[in-house]
Amino acid sequence: MPYNSRSDLPESVQNVLPAHAQDIYKEAFNSAWDEYKDNDDRRDDASREETAHKVAWAAVKHGYQKGDDDKWHKKK
Asked: d(Cα 32, Cα 49) in Å, to the nearest integer?
């Protein structure tokens, strides 16, 4: 299910990502949710939700990286 706001995101996302990264996650998830609605558009037997989460994390990792302090930081 798409997310309307950051507060709707899973706690595992809210607790580890900075606000801007949460926005990226939410937008990427929602876009992937629409894009991969058909089984034929997904790899393997991944569910629509699983695929959307993978896409969202990939989008976050484009602009952020996990630091030695175990926190996510914007890439330079």
From this structure: 9
